[in-house]
What does this fold into?
Amino acid sequence: MGQHFLFAVAVFQLFLILPVLVQAQSPSGFISIDCGLVDEPSYRDEITAIDYTSDTQFIGTGVSRKISSEYKLNSLPRQFWNVRSFPEGNRNCYTLHSGQGTGSSSKHLIRARFMYGNYDGKDTLPKFDIYLGSKWWDSVEFENASNVITKEVVSIASSDYVHVCLFNINQGTPFISVLEHRVLNSDAYLVNSLQLFARFDFGLQDTKIVRYPDDVYDRIWIPYNSSNLKHIKTSLWVDQGASSYSFLPLPPSNVTRTAAVPANASNNIELHFQFLPRNNASTYYAYLFFAEIEKLEGNQVREFNVFVNGDLLNSNPVKPSYLESIYYAALVTEPELKLWINGTNRSTLPPLVNAIEIYMTKDLLQTQTDQKDVDAIMNIKSTYGIKRNWQGDPCTPVEYLWDGLNCSYAGSGPRRIISLNLSSIGLTGNIAPNMSNLRSLESLDLSNNSLTGDVPGSLSQLHSLKDLNLEENQLTGTVPMDLYESSKNGKINFRFGGNPDLCYPDSDSCQNKSNTIVISIVASVGGAFLLLAATVIFFIFKRRQLVPTRVSSPSSYYKLNKEVQSKKQQITSDEILSITNNFGRVLGKGGFGTVYHGYLGNTEVAVKVVSPSAQGYLQFQTEANLLTRVHHKCLTSLIGYCDEGPNVALIYEYMPNGNLAKHLSDKNEHVLSWKQRLQIAVDAAQGLEYMHKGCKPPIVHRDVKPSNILLDEKFRGKISDFGLSKIYANEGDTHVYTAIAGTTGYLDPQYNISNKLNEKSDVFSFGVVLLEMITGQPAIAKTDEGKTHIIDWLKSMQSESEISDIVDSRLEGKFGTDSARKLLDTAMACVASRSIDRPTMGEVVKELTHCLAMETSPSSLIHDSFYGISGESSLAR
Ligand SMILES: *[C@@H]1O[C@H](CO)[C@@H](O)[C@H](O)[C@H]1NC(C)=O
Ligand SMILES: *[C@@H]1O[C@H](CO)[C@@H](O)[C@H](O)[C@H]1NC(C)=O
Ligand SMILES: *[C@@H]1O[C@H](CO)[C@@H](O)[C@H](O)[C@H]1NC(C)=O
Ligand SMILES: *[C@@H]1O[C@H](CO)[C@@H](O)[C@H](O)[C@H]1NC(C)=O
Ligand SMILES: *[C@@H]1O[C@H](CO)[C@@H](O)[C@H](O)[C@H]1NC(C)=O
Ligand SMILES: *[C@@H]1O[C@H](CO)[C@@H](O)[C@H](O)[C@H]1NC(C)=O
Ligand SMILES: *[C@@H]1O[C@H](CO)[C@@H](O)[C@H](O)[C@H]1NC(C)=O
Ligand SMILES: *[C@@H]1O[C@H](CO)[C@@H](O)[C@H](O)[C@H]1NC(C)=O
Ligand SMILES: *[C@@H]1O[C@H](CO)[C@@H](O)[C@H](O)[C@H]1NC(C)=O
Ligand SMILES: *[C@@H]1O[C@H](CO)[C@@H](O)[C@H](O)[C@H]1NC(C)=O
It folds into this structure.
């Protein structure tokens, strides 16, 4: 059955956004390279108005060539008139700096284009490979000399630069004509990395190719023609839209204002795409775009069904609105795509289609060398003008290491340069200070060169260095004391003989220029023991710090631990579709995904579809792994999960009353009663107490706030959203160090300063939540004076205020004064600025239970306190 992961998304009109988008995406953010352009540094393309620059600043190798004049037609864009060809070296790389920062913050579209044009006069079509960084992208093959080959990928930017490399596979000399880099939104196209298979505009407006400036992302839309199709168009603007589903950048109006209908109106539309085995992809995504472009008369109907390899894509018949784009997406796992767009019985008009994009999934996630190492080695390369095969990333792919260096390959994370051998290659000048930025260096050999100047003291900052060879140079001055000490005590095997004017510190021989001083101390048994001890200590220390913050390697994004897999229901992406009725109803949207309503059998569920970013996967893993360990009536429970390649989702019990934030907002008509509030407070407090004390090792939630407290049909509260939670590495630990995370307004000020996280950080956040429940005010209120935090507001209120001035006015006085005062005291104790002054969650639970008891049985007022909320820390006085 259905192999299609489908989304049906209506796109709504958003009049304001469009002009802004067009403005912001000026082509100045584009990198557009005319490879081999040498006559001038740049020019402006007449049709697209894109500025193409020469490639000399992006690559240091290759030769510029012109295509043969017989191919240089006027209709051929100028970018194809020259090429850069690479007769030497089996790997040649362009380095593109996107200037976009790192991580999952952005996606890029990279396009490489090739036209042979018999540039070398050999009339022989070459074949070669193209790589994106360390990953194979495609092979480049031509049908004839005027054939333009375009390779395009959309992929997560894992660092602020990317290498595009051409590999010689002994079937001709690699060359390239055009290289283009565009920035997309980080969630564009849902999937981490995709390669373009086809992008068609089903309209033939003058058979023109649509790209920039009509398409702000400069996607190239190729006209599609077939004898079975007829083309229709409108001159009106079709809304490209910008909905909350920003992940699919819709085609520009120029594309969607034209469409194809069957040439014979009583037929349907059939499209057939055959995938090539060479593409080596197992999964394809097809995005279909529809917009009604004919004004329908009263009784006219255009309505159709879309079948993908025989399976129905849409749940309800597709009925595009006038001048508004919608799209449907299908995941295809067969080696072909057969599309039928069939009119329904009701339809009086033939079906239509406006545009289609087809991508194949491709693993292009990069393992790269550590950025600092790259910066340092690039500086060293340029300082000495080193050529060798120093192209692309220094450490990847493994088979193409830069000559003279070696890297660490342990586990995940970026590669580090661990050895550098620049012996006997005629280096002159000083030892580059950037050598000491190669922080993982274990061995450095600069022997047999003509290096002059001092030995930089900064080399002693290389704490892993075991081998340093500076022999046979013209270095001068005195060996830095630290280095000398390290070599004397056997930490470093340091050789610097053959430098006539170099002295060592405790010698009086500096003047007599005694040569060939060799200090080569092999680590003694004692030394080795010391080293071992140091390693063990380092290891233990590291373990504590790193366990929670370590980002796992890309490949592990897709793998959940065994425990989750065995205990929970695994659900396929097809089932997700049927459960959510094709994502029919959105319950909410957070930073790491969208939550949909669904039915699993007869049970109502909430389905969180995690957005495909590294951070999203990380949070998915945290949450899934945690929720299988942790079960409590006051924590939302996980029913199942979907973990299929890029499609990741979590299925929870459904909480019909939404989240607490919604109910506290004064826009919401339903006002939570005082008793309901107390009950929710008790429930949430119990959930947190369980995490802090009931779990071994304890768990800190880190993101306690009203929107993460969900309400069931009886308005009982449950803690949810554990994506930021941290598990203590060991049971006995009292805190974990982590990068700051959480939500402004709820963040423990102490954690904010120290990065030291313990349960008391949750107590603080929970205190803020209590204050909001009491007052009905937001954590941070915007006032005339600027932003005021609720704690500061209360501090300014309390001295002269009655409790009734503080409690939410929407309750209209319906609350117990005593329980309110007690709740306020508890909340204020929780938000004490020093964590040591705050109660534990257990103590909070007791206090809140008391408050609730006061409301339930007003006759038996309880006045004692289980613990003294300390006078100093409670701001209530
Ligand atoms: C070259 O190949 C392309 C792509 O197959 C084709 O469209 C074109 O007609 C061919 N040109 C010549 C001159 O054979
Ligand atoms: C796109 O539409 C605009 C008018 O809206 C027109 O000026 C422009 O030439 C069109 N572009 C293409 C490639 O047809
Ligand atoms: C599209 O195809 C039809 C039939 O194959 C042909 O008559 C028509 O000229 C083509 N249109 C263009 C613009 O190539
Ligand atoms: C259109 O298609 C119908 C049914 O397939 C057929 O009966 C009719 O002859 C076709 N019309 C033309 C003009 O080809
Ligand atoms: C769609 O229409 C075509 C003919 O127009 C027909 O052969 C095909 O069976 C239809 N598909 C479905 C699923 O009804
Ligand atoms: C194609 O995929 C197979 C299996 O995934 C892999 O072993 C092979 O190396 C791939 N080929 C290329 C050219 O990447
Ligand atoms: C559409 O019409 C066909 C025959 O004309 C019929 O078999 C089918 O049940 C109809 N479908 C609907 C949904 O009415
Ligand atoms: C790099 O180091 C690894 C292990 O440390 C070793 O096996 C390999 O031979 C080294 N490669 C080179 C080119 O020195
Ligand atoms: C560095 O390379 C030279 C040859 O180029 C070799 O003799 C020397 O042993 C190498 N040094 C190290 C530390 O491997
Ligand atoms: C290392 O190289 C970078 C980039 O060229 C330069 O900005 C920096 O100052 C260098 N560092 C040292 C310590 O010289």
Q: What stands out?
A: Residues 794 and 801 are 9 Å apart (CA to CA). The longest helix spans residues 525-549.
